[in-house]
Amino acid sequence: MLKFEQNIRGNVALGINPLGCKQEVLNQIDYVKNKGTYQGPKKVLIIGASSSYGLATRINLAFGAGADTIGVSFEKGPKNERNLGTAGWYNNIAFREAAEKDGLIAKNFVQDAFSHESKQEVIDYIKSEFGGKVDLVVYSLASGRRTDPDTGETYSSSIKAIGEPVVGPNINMQKQEFYTETLDPATDQEIHDTVKVMGGEDWQLWMEALKEADVLADEVLTTNYSYLGTELNHDYYGGGTLGRAKADCDEKADNINELLTDINGKALIVVATAVTTKASSVIPFFPVYCIGLYKVMAEKGTHETTIMHQDRIYREMIYGDKPEYDEVGRLRPDSWELDSDTQAKTKELILKLNEENFNSELTAYDIFYKEFSNLSGFMVDNYVDQEVTLEELKALKY
Ligand code: NAI
C-alpha cells in the first residue's frame, strides 16, 4: 500500500496525496452545487485547467452553469512509489469522473499549451466532437518556461524587482521560518523573457488560431486572470517583472478585442484576488502579505478560496448582475482585497511580524498553510484515509 507524505522543499510541495486531491475537487464541486445553478456558457475551453484558478473556474462553470468543458494542462502521471506524478494529474481525473457522472463532456488535453500542435488538436476536437464552437475561452496558465512555437527558443520567467533590489520578510514553510530576503532587480533580458512566458502572447495566439479555424461562437468571451496588487506588494509584483507581464496581457486584450469585433466577441481581463496557489507560494514576500491579508479578510468575512472567488466572478459578476469594471474595462473582483480599511489593517499587521509571532494567532498562517497543503491533497476537509496501490493509480485515465 502507498504511503502519502507531505514533503515540502522551501515553499514547493513535492509529496502528493492523490486521494486527497480527489476529495478536494469533490469539496469544490459541493461548494458550487450548494449554491445552485445559474445561466452561463455551455461550451468552454480552459487553458491551464488542472489547478487553482483554472480548475476552480472549470468546476464552477460545469457544476454551476452546466457547461461542457475542454481543459488543457501540463501534468505528469505516476511513475513509481516515490514519484506519484503531480496533483493536477489527479485533479483532471477527479473532475472528469464527476462531470461525466452528471452527463457533462469533460475532455482533458495534457500537453504543452504553448505549441501550435496543441492548439490544432484542440481545434480538431472542437470541430469533430464538441459541437463545433466554444462560447467561452478561459486563459489561466502559469508557467516558469515557454518555448516559442515559431522559433523553438525557450524562455524562462524570473520573479524579480525592476530598478532597485527589494528587501523584506518571507516565510519558508518547510523550515517554518520567517527570514529576510533580498530580491535582485531584473536585467532587461529577464524582463523581456518573463513577458514572453507570462505575458499575453500565447493567449493571443490561441485566440487567433481559434478564430481562424472558425470555432468561436458569436459573442464569444475570453477571460485572462491578472493581478495588480497594492502598495504593499508593488515593489516585487506590480512594479516588477510579473507586473510587466500582466501589462502585456492588457495590451494583448486590446488586440484580441479587435480580432473579435466581427463576431461581437470580447476579451476580458479579470483582476483576481490574491490566493494560495502553487504559483503564488513561490513569489518572494507574497506569503507574508497573504498571512496578513487573509487574517484581516477572514475577520471581516471577505476571505475567499479559489473556488469561492471564481464562483463569485462567473455567477455574480460576468453572468450575473454585479459586475464591477475599472476605467479601462477590466473586471475588478479584487475590490474586496483592495478595500482601504483592509489594506490599512494588513499593513499594520505585517509591520508587527517577526520570527516569534508569524505563525501565531496574530496571523492567518494556519489558513495559508492549510490552503497550500490542500493543493497537494493534504489537510483536506472530509478526507478519509483509504488504501490504494500504485497499479490502481497507474490505471486511472485522464
Ligand atoms: P497554477 O500554477 O495553479 O496553475 C497553472 C495551470 O497552468 C495548471 O493547470 C498547469 O498545468 C498549467 N500549465 C502550466 N504550463 C503549461 C503548459 N506549458 N501547457 C499547458 N498547461 C500548462 O496557477 P494559478 O496561480 O492558478 O495562476 C493562474 C493565473 O491566475 C495566472 O495568470 C496568475 O498570474 C493568475 N492570478 C493568480 C493569482 C494568485 O494569487 N495565485 C492572483 C491573480 C491572478
From TrEMBL:
Pathway: Lipid metabolism. It catalyses: a 2,3-saturated acyl-CoA + NAD(+) = a (2E)-enoyl-CoA + NADH + H(+). Keywords: Fatty acid biosynthesis, Fatty acid metabolism, Lipid biosynthesis, Lipid metabolism, NAD, Oxidoreductase. GO terms for molecular function: enoyl-[acyl-carrier-protein] reductase (NADH) activity. It holds the Pfam family Enoyl_reductase. Residues 5-79 form the Trans-2-enoyl-CoA reductase-like NAD(P)H binding domain. The keyword Transferase does not apply. Residues 84-319 form the Trans-2-enoyl-CoA reductase catalytic domain. Monomer. This is trans-2-enoyl-CoA reductase (NAD(+)). It comes from Carnobacterium antarcticum.
